[in-house]
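Notes from hallway chat w/ T.B., transcribed later so I don't forget. T.B. wanted the structure written out for a chain they're using in a teaching module, and asked if we could keep both sequence and C-alpha cells in one place. Agreed to drop them here.
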Amino acid sequence: SDPSVELRKSKELFAAFPAVVAYDQRRRRGLDVVEPRDDLDYSQNFLWMTFGEEYPAEVVDAFRVSMVLYAEHSFNASTFTARVITSTESDLHSAVTGAIGALKGSLHGGANEAVMHTFNEIGIDKNESREDAAARAKAWMEAALAEKRKVMGFGHRVYKSGDSRVPSMKEALDKMIEYYGRHEMLGLYDGLEKAMAEAKDILPNLDYPAGPTYHLMGFDTDMFTPLFIASRITGWTAHIIEQRADNALIRPLSLYHGPDQREV
C-alpha cells in the first residue's frame, strides 16, 4: 500500500479514537454526545468530549503525560501481533484490530483496570488519612501474597530493575492527588508498593500509577484499556508502516518437545 495512504489512515484513527472512547463513557452514563472544539488541543478535546467541561492545566498535563507514555513500547504483544498481520500483506485496519484483540488480554492492556479493582477491593475512603490507608493496603497485599494471588501493576517482562516510565507517571499522579486533595489514594498506593517491595522486591510498572490517575480524572475503570488503545494507535500504526516498507512474512519456528516419532 502507498505509504502516504497508510499515514493518512493512521492519522484518521488517531483523530477518531478520542471521540470513540469519550462517547462510549457518556453512552454508558446515559449522557448526550459532546462535540469536539477547534480551539482545543488533543488532550483538552479528549477531556472535553468525555466530561463536557474544560479541565484545568494540571489535569490536562497529567493526561497528556499518560498518552505519551502509553504511545509506543517496542515489540510488546499487541505491537508484535500488528506486525505479524501486516507481514501477511493484510490491511492496516485488520492489523490494528488484531492488536486491539491482543491488548484486551488481562496480562497486557487490562492491567491498569486491575489496579483500580485492587484499590476498590481494599476500599477507598475519602475521609481516611494517608497513613491509615497505607496500613490497610500493606496488610491487604501481605494477605494476597500469602494466598499466592496475582497482583497486577507490578513487574515487567522487560524492565527488571524498574519501569523507566513510572517516575513520570507517578509525578503526574502526585499532582492529581494534590489537585483533588485525595491523599488516601497516595496511602493505598504507598502501602501496596511497600509491601510488594519488601516481600518480592518487585517494582511497579506504568499501569500502577496510571490506573488511579485516570480514576481521579473521572474516567470509568472500564475505559482504562480503551484509553490505552487511543494512545497506542500511534505506535501500532508506526510499526505497521515500518513493516510494510521492508516486509517479509513473520513465521517463527517452534521447537518440539514430546514423544519420539512412532512408527505406524
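Follow-up for T.B.: The chain has a mean pLDDT of 96. Might be a good example for the class.
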